[in-house]
Amino acid sequence: MQLGFIGLGHLGKAIAGRLLDCGHNLTVWNRTHSKSEGMLVEIASSPVSVTQNAEVVFLCMFDSNAVNSVLTQENGILSGEIAGKIIIDLSTNHFKEVSNFHELCKNAGATYLEAPVLGSVVPASQGSLTVLVSGDTTGYEKVKPLLENIGKHLFYFNEPALATKMKLINNLALGSFMATIAEALSLGEEIGIAKKEILEILSVGGGNSLVLNAKKMKLLEEDFSTHFSCALIYKDLHCLQDLAYEQKKTLFTGSVIKELYARTFEEGMDQEDFSAIYKLFKKK
Questions:
Q1: Homologous superfamily, domain 164-282
Q2: Which residues are marked as active site?
Q3: Which of 27, 78, 150, 227 has its CA 20 to 30 A from that of 261?
Q4: Residue 284 scores a pLDDT above 60
Q5: Assessment of whether the complete model's pTM goes beyond 0.90
């Protein structure tokens, strides 16, 4: 299938690579053109040109401002003829903004599906992501086989913004697990136990989780090359606070974890992998 793909950050490039491995042809656009180097894809000159030969266009952007830009800017997706096309937005958006994206695309005759994913670069390259989807049922059924190329688990919600809200809730657990594992590791080292042994014990004890399994080698080797950045989880936890505010719910651990990730900006670590939070505890 001829697909469009906009947004070749760490995650986007991994997902695009997976789609290529599954035999699809891609027309891509990215603000930084060099990120498409080495990929066997057609390079588009603008977001709208991505849609010309593609029935389905994926977006994988940093935040809602970036999504809004590729949709509405001059030469953005909505400036072209997109009636009948399906936009699959893999970005983690603000839950209020995503409702607007549904409406904008509907008014242009296109189907918008919000489809934030759980997982980062490695599962993306293996087609093992979890994909949360909200939007038109007919559109979802049409692209479900395509989503199964990138996702091992699919969860569908008809109500707009529900998938995005669930993604934010998931990242409450994700960030909290990561911070707790990092603090436990640092404290264990402080009392004189070797890092490798601490991680082995945590992995069969209270720390056993997908998070620890995914980040064990990064913590062991202190290789914090980015799969999912501190800046991204900070952004998601900020959106989560807005969700809690709207629901008039207190957010205890989420607020603390968000402020810990805020420190990564002060320490110049915001573009490193979110497991780099370990360094905040280690330096004390």
A1: N-(1-d-carboxylethyl)-l-norvaline Dehydrogenase; domain 2 (1.10.1040.10)
A2: 167
A3: 150
A4: no
A5: yes
